[in-house]
Amino acid sequence: MHHFQYRGDQFTCEEVPIERIAQEVGAPFYLYSHATLTHHFRVFDEAFADIPSFIALNRTLYERARDMGGTRLTSSAIPFTQADWIRHYGPAWEPFRAAKQRYDPKNVLTPGHNMFSG
To answer: What is the distance between the alpha carbons of residues 20 and 2, in angstroms, rounded to a whole number?
Structure first.
């Protein structure tokens, strides 16, 4: 839904001739349609209303890809548990964990990824 249209030979925004707006505010200028923006915000809100379902679907797709040998980027829309991270890193997990403990014992760096407990 867009509210920029031609009405005869006049280009309009929400049925107001843009030429008239230009005469009132001067040119150049930016012009936004409140009705169009409101419509698109509503569409966006409705599309993402069920975020938990999107995350669950992402998790299912990730697990399928993982089971076929795929990996994931370290930043993702899929929450990982520590067990997921251990599986992700495989044999590199223990040296990685030891280095993390040695160089970042207070877990200041990337504490939000659930890699390390506590």
So the answer is: 19
